[in-house]
Design a protein that fits this description.
alpha/beta; five-stranded mixed beta sheet; 10 strands; 29% helix; globular
Length: 236
């Protein structure tokens, strides 16, 4: 028996789980995540796509030091949870799988868990957000839609990194974002452009994986291709 000694608390970031509970379980296991000691920052979009959003919520609820951010899909799903109304387009964008995952009952605890999600989180000169920000504008003055949807920061960083490597777009040491799958740029690994770290490695899509990044070391832990974990389902 080998005893693994980990620091008292490691800090991991992940994003865009999209109902892929099996991928989440693999990343927790492969990273040696300690649910009582380690911290997990989830950059939103835990809902919609693969068939186990319900299990994802329950698993994340059991993590002691969880920071949950809100994604655009979580906003859609929460609207349904609170009102029963289905946003036009949401059903076809993975919402059907989320609704089906709760066929045995949606609880007040599930709704309360989703409602606690933050729009952004700051720690140790780092910013964590689902989609992006508008640099130069105080965060508390920005429309929440920017945090949920806006890809302009990511696209600007990719362009600037290509033209002038090592450039910066903000005063943060690092900005971790999800929402924009790295599959769009030909890789299933996290990417860095300027100080922006793209953490969505396409877990919601065929061919993608879920990734955990250990923030202080940069070490990456990944699931198998999510479509191979759910051969019976379609994902997004």
């Amino acid at each position: 028996y080998t005893f693994h000694c980990y620091p008292a608390m490691r800090i991991f970031v992940t994003s865009d789980i999209h109902g892929a509970y099996r991928a989440l379980e693999q990343c927790l296991l492969r990273s040696g995540f300690q649910p009582e000691e380690d911290q997990l920052i989830v950059l939103g979009d835990i809902c919609d796509g693969w068939p186990e959003t319900h299990h994802v919520i329950r698993a994340l609820s059991g993590i002691n030091r969880l920071i949950l951010l809100r994604g655009n899909h979580d906003e859609w799903a929460l609207h349904w949870m609170k009102t029963g109304a289905i946003t036009p387009g949401w059903w076809m964008q993975g919402g059907k799988a989320t609704v089906t995952s709760f066929e045995n009952g949606l609880t007040e605890e599930d709704i309360a868990f989703m409602e606690r999600a933050l729009y952004y989180y700051e720690w140790n000169d780092r910013l964590f957000v689902h989609a992006g920000i508008l640099p130069g504008i105080p965060l508390d003055e920005q429309d929440p839609e920017v945090f949920l949807w806006d890809r302009s920061l990511v696209m600007k960083a990719l362009q600037l990194e290509a033209e002038k490597p090592g450039s910066r777009l903000s005063n943060y040491h690092e900005i971790y974002v999800g929402h924009t799958p790295t599959l769009n740029f030909g890789t299933d690994k996290p990417m860095r452009a300027c100080e922006i770290v793209l953490t969505d490695t396409g877990a919601g899509w065929e061919g993608g994986r879920l990734s955990f990044i250990e923030v202080t070391t940069g070490e990456i832990f990944q699931s198998d291709r999510v479509d191979t974990l759910y051969p019976e389902a379609e994902g997004r």
